[in-house]
Write a structure and sequence with these properties.
With 368 residues, the protein is an alpha/beta fold. Helix content is 21%, strand content 26%. The longest helix has 13 residues, at 195-207. The protein is globular.
């Protein structure tokens, strides 16, 4: 059986979620009540029988390391393979590489030592539930050099404006990679590549002074190499702005969307925290809301997401909002179209109201 190893490349991902990425990288941003965005990338890999996963990270990764630990939540705390968190290594005086090619160059031992024949490279901003074994089979059948994964979206949103788009011939061979805002074939920042071919492209990129592996090593060689397109048909969320984060979070309140992303046969794993079940007072009223463990609800909550340990005081009203871990909302407070980062406190009687297209965001550990 052909094996794959995984690389989650965070190097070129910008921290674009405003207050939510003041203190953490985007991959560590909480999502869907109890997860982090990176949980989906790692879970997809382990569900696809990938046993070695490397994470390339450059900035604000303390929160990410605290969350991932040794990879136990994904059964990656193993003797062979496992989870490798790989910050850049600045100790090689001969290193002339730049950009994310520094990561590929400085951590080339991960690629050399893995028993895998193929490498699956992914980012963290595309949320989905995908089986990479299906992608690998399509890759081998097409005899491609690289297989890129894309989603043909029904409707284009602002987050798609700067995503790469794909054109194909009749055999799903990629003929163009561009930023056409009208094209609906959205590249999901995921691709499968032969390990030896990956090593060759890394060496060529460094020799030519390149700085972005995908753009300079794959996209730029489009006329000369065979790039195959694999269409993903499941639920998909591209999160590269506060507005996209807010809208896709709200989409999970639709039972069909939630069930398709969190499948029983391919679960999404996260760091385990043992907490008591949520507790609702007789005066509480909760509708269409995701409520995590450890919450204490004594007010009205509607169309919202409450992370672990949130406290909603008596008479408080929370609508269309995302309230992260251990936030406290005082009695009589009113929140609508609001995102509270972890450990925020809203005083008694305060009112915070944002707009559906521009939610009010409060940074971590703030008090109002």
């Amino acid at each position: 059986m052909d094996r794959m190893a995984g690389i989650i490349n965070l190097d070129h991902e910008q921290d674009v979620l405003e207050e939510l990425t003041y203190f953490r990288c985007g991959a560590a941003v909480p999502f869907a009540g109890r997860y982090r965005m990176i949980d989906f990338a790692i879970s997809n890999m382990t569900n696809s029988r990938i046993e070695s996963v490397a994470v390339f990270t450059r900035r604000k990764y303390r929160s990410l390391m605290d969350h991932l630990e040794q990879g136990k939540a994904w059964e990656l705390d193993r003797k062979r393979g496992g989870l490798f968190i790989l910050p850049p290594d600045w100790n090689d005086p001969t290193d002339i590489s730049r950009g994310d090619l520094q990561h590929f160059h400085n951590n080339i031992d991960f690629i050399h030592r893995t028993y895998a024949d193929y490498i699956l490279v992914s980012g963290s901003q595309n949320i989905c539930n995908i089986n990479y074994q299906d992608v690998l089979e399509a890759h081998k059948e097409s005899n491609a050099d690289v297989t890129v994964i894309y989603k043909s979206v029904e409707e284009l949103y602002p987050e798609h404006n700067f995503a790469h788009k794909l054109n194909f011939d009749g055999n799903q061979r990629v003929t163009a990679i561009h930023n056409d805002k009208q094209n609906t074939n959205v590249y999901m920042d995921m691709y499968v590549i032969d390990k030896n071919f990956l090593h060759k492209l890394i060496e060529e990129g460094i020799a030519h002074g390149s700085s972005h592996f995908f753009l300079d090593g794959i996209k730029a060689k489009l006329p000369d190499i065979h790039i195959h397109g694999y269409e993903y048909n499941g639920v998909h969320a591209l999160i590269n702005s506060v507005e996209s984060y807010y809208r896709h979070s709200a989409n999970l309140l639709n039972e069909a969307n939630h069930s398709e992303l969190f499948k029983e046969d391919s679960p999404i794993f996260t760091k385990v925290k043992n907490e008591a079940p949520a507790k609702y007072s007789p005066n509480s009223h909760v509708t269409n809301t995701l409520v995590a463990n450890g919450c204490l609800v004594d007010g009205e909550v509607e169309d919202s997401i409450l992370f672990r340990g949130v406290k909603v005081g008596e008479g408080a009203v929370v609508k269309n909002s995302i309230i992260m871990q251990r936030c406290e909302i005082g009695s009589g407070a009113v929140l609508e179209n609001v995102i509270l980062d972890k450990d925020c406190k809203i005083s008694q009687g305060r009112t915070l109201i944002g707009a559906p297209e521009k939610p009010f965001v409060l940074a971590k550990r703030k008090t109002m």
